[in-house]
Design a protein that fits this description.
Helix content is about 35%, strand content about 20%. The protein is an alpha+beta fold.
Length: about 500
């Protein structure tokens, strides 16, 4: 809804600063802050329409600062960053300190805080609020910009009717959403339990009892390592031939054995299983560095981190970069390759199943399995390791996590026989296929609920949710009265 939208009779457009006194909270500075240690609200504590106080920190605040830097019952608390505009009403009797990453907004003249809260949610959902964000990479809603946010102001009496109607409609909708999310969490727990049973051998215990003749994985690993070395030697000879050179007598000595698996804390495996490092089972490498100034060759579509989901690819937004023909063997994935994220959500992966090769960027690992390695089984293990935090021990980076090529090489993978790998992937597919169909339906219903919530908010702030009453005092009269109202605190307004 834009300001050019016609409002009902008795409504008026106004600025947020005209209907609420607002200010940012206290700057966190451990070196300069003095006073008593007090709990305070951060951005992370504020959700839409509520607060999460499970993780509350403390900072020093002087008594004389409390009036400026605490919220009290009825105040609207609004995120300045993170998800700018996300807001909730403080409903507790006790005041609570708040940090500079939050705005405290105190409605004026009897204006409903809940009305402003729902208005912000509507403005966020429509994109109208984003017009006020600043920052090139991280969005912020500064005090100056919050002051400018346009409010479609209804008469006070109609504000109360709108809030009552929204809360009645949304109570049932929210209850349904909560039930759907609970069911989704149950499915996620079920998936994790199936994955754990799969990669620890519990899922195929009966299969092993029925197949005592299954090959010992230690023998399988020896065969894989022989193939790994033979492939390296073939690649080296091909390189020498391409360059027209004769291999030196000691060229085989340059072969590097695969990294040993990181053994700390590894659980016991079933009989005839072994632990192997990722680099023993896959030929893996990072993709091509994106550098528009240096890259040459033909423009080709390529995979980025954002294109890789768990067990699949999203190719709706594919970019292009220049790659030479002689680079394609290094920087393309082919059918059967495992593609793994190096950053973002490190370890997230999928198997490329298309016939045509596809280029990939340096933010991804291409992992090509050796014979007797089922990439589907290894992908199941990576998903389990990611969900159980086992993979995290291999991440680097203090703020943004990465799974480097060196770290990936050392990831320990449980290795059963090829036949048992196939049995595991089949058993997992059988158990999860129905659960995945149910999860997809739940996701559809959650998306439908979000659209319905959005439609209700749109109707509310276009004046079409509840009837207008000609006897209501017009918003223009309320605004005129607010213009003459004494602001209760001198430091109110945007900061």
């Amino acid at each position: 809804m834009s300001e050019t939208t016609d409002l009902p009779e008795g409504w008026a457009w106004t600025a947020f600063s005209e209907v609420a006194d607002h200010r940012l909270g206290k700057m966190l500075d451990k070196r300069k802050n003095t006073g008593t240690l007090r709990p305070y609200l951060r951005n992370v504590n504020v959700r839409w329409h509520g607060f999460d106080l499970d993780d509350v920190l403390e900072m020093r605040i002087e008594d004389y600062e409390l009036d400026k830097y605490t919220v009290r019952k009825g105040d609207l608390v609004i995120c300045e960053g993170g998800e700018p505009g996300r807001a909730a009403i403080w409903t507790r009797d006790e005041p609570f300190a708040y940090q500079k990453a939050l705005h405290r907004a105190r409605p004026r003249g009897g204006i409903e805080a809940a009305y402003l809260l729902y208005m912000l949610e509507d403005a966020a959902g429509s994109g109208r609020l984003a017009e006020h964000f600043t920052g090139s990479t991280i969005n912020h809603l500064t005090g100056r910009e919050l002051a400018k946010v346009r409010v479609p102001l209804a008469p006070l009496a109609e504000q109360r009717r709108i809030v009552d109607a929204l809360e009645a409609y949304l109570a049932d909708l929210d209850a349904g959403v909560a039930a759907l999310k609970a069911a989704r969490r149950d499915l996620d727990r079920y998936r994790r339990s199936v994955l754990q049973a799969a990669v620890t051998g519990a899922l195929t215990a009966d299969w092993r009892a029925r197949h005592p003749e299954a090959e010992d994985a230690a023998s399988v690993l020896e065969r894989i390592l022989e193939e790994r070395r033979a492939q390296w030697e073939a690649d080296q000879l091909a390189t020498y031939e391409t360059k027209g050179k004769t291999p030196p007598k000691t060229w085989r000595d340059r072969y590097k054995e695969p990294a040993a698996p990181e053994a700390d804390g590894l659980p016991d495996l079933p009989p005839r299983w072994v632990w192997a490092s990722f680099s023993a089972l896959f030929d893996h490498r990072l993709g091509k560095m994106l550098d528009k100034r240096k890259n040459t060759g033909t423009l080709r579509p390529y995979l980025r981190n954002v294109n890789v989901r768990w067990h699949g690819f999203d190719l709706d937004d594919v970019l292009e970069m220049r790659i030479e023909d002689d680079e394609l063997h290094k920087y393309t994935v082919r059918k059967g390759d495992l593609v793994i994220c190096e950053g973002g959500e490190p370890g997230r992966g999928a198997i490329w199943k298309k016939e045509e090769p596809f280029a990939y960027q340096k933010a991804l690992h291409r992992a090509r399995p050796y014979s007797d390695v089922d990439a589907e089984f290894v992908l199941l293990y990576l998903e389990y390791a990611a969900s159980s935090e086992r993979l995290r021990r291999h991440f680097t980076g203090s703020t943004i996590s990465h799974l480097t090529g060196r770290a990936l090489a050392e990831v320990a993978i449980p290795l059963p026989s090829p036949d048992e790998q196939a049995a595991i992937t089949e058993a997992v597919d059988e158990r999860l296929s129905v659960a995945e169909a149910i999860a997809a339906e739940i996701d559809c219903q959650l998306a439908r609920a979000a659209r319905l919530r959005r439609a209700l908010l749109q109707r509310a702030f276009a004046g079409r949710l509840v009837p207008q009453d000609p006897a209501d005092e017009p918003a223009s009269v309320l605004l005129a009265r607010l213009g003459g109202e004494v602001v209760p605190e001198a430091a109110s307004g945007p900061e």
